[in-house]
Amino acid sequence: MKWEKLFTTQIVERGYEYYCEGMVDSFEVTVEGIHGLVMGSEEYDVSISLVQGDVDEVSCSCPYARGGKYCKHMAAMLFAWSSQTGELERTSKWRINDDNYFQSRLEEIDDLVEEADSETVRSFLKGVLAADDRWYHRFC
């Protein structure tokens, strides 16, 4: 995928993690480009213009990208787009690690939940549900 070269290795890897975690909330592809939302510490607006199917310009509303840097939210959106076009499935570099990634992520989550006391879990859940109507409705 040509667009990967726009990002540092660390940013593209974090973007892949965000993509795998389902942080790309929604996106729309048009002739002009890609636009959507990626969840982070808050919801970020990502826009990517395309010229003849290649990435031309990218922007994100996150603080990191305001300085003109390429961020993990942009990379996550591009992974989602690559998945939709079938390009991601043809790229073994990212496909190989999926099972290992999900297994280690599940183990990490299991450890976090096991170590948390019930008050911490309740407090966290209240904060998430108060901050995001979608999670509130999903929990209901």
Helices and strands in order:
Blueprint: H1 9-20, E1 24-29, E2 33-39, E3 43-51, E4 54-60, H2 63-66, H3 72-85, H4 87-90, H5 92-95, H6 98-115, H7 118-131, H8 133-139
Antiparallel strand pairs: 1-2, 2-3, 3-4
Helix pairs in contact: 1-3, 7-8
Number of strands: 4
Choose one word for the global shape. Answer: globular
Let me know the average pLDDT.
85
Structural class: alpha+beta
Strand residues, percent: 15-25%
Rg calc: 17 Å
Order of helices and strands: HEEEEHHHHHHH
Gap from first CA to last CA: 40 Å
Sheet bearing the most strands, described?
4 strands, antiparallel
Strand line-up across the major sheet = 1-2-3-4
Which range best describes the helical content: under 10%, 10-25%, 25-40%, 40-55%, 55-70% or over 70%? 55-70%
Low-confidence regions: none
Q: How many helices does DSSP assign?
A: 8
Question: Which terms summarize this structure?
Answer:
single chain; alpha+beta; 4-stranded antiparallel beta sheet; 4 strands
Written account of the structure:
By secondary structure, this protein is α+β, with helices and mostly antiparallel strands. 55% of the residues lie in helices and 21% in strands. A four-stranded antiparallel sheet has the order 1-2-3-4. The chain is globular, with a radius of gyration of 17 Å. The protein has helices at residues 9-20, 63-66, 72-85, 87-90, 92-95, 98-115, 118-131, 133-139; strands spanning 24-29, 33-39, 43-51, 54-60. The relative contact order is 0.13. The longest helix is centred in the last third of the chain and has 18 residues, at 98-115. Helix 1 (9-20) packs across helix 3 (72-85). The protein has eight helices and four strands; from the N terminus they run αββββααααααα. It starts with 8 loop residues before the first helix and ends with a helix. The model has no long low-confidence stretch (mean pLDDT 85).
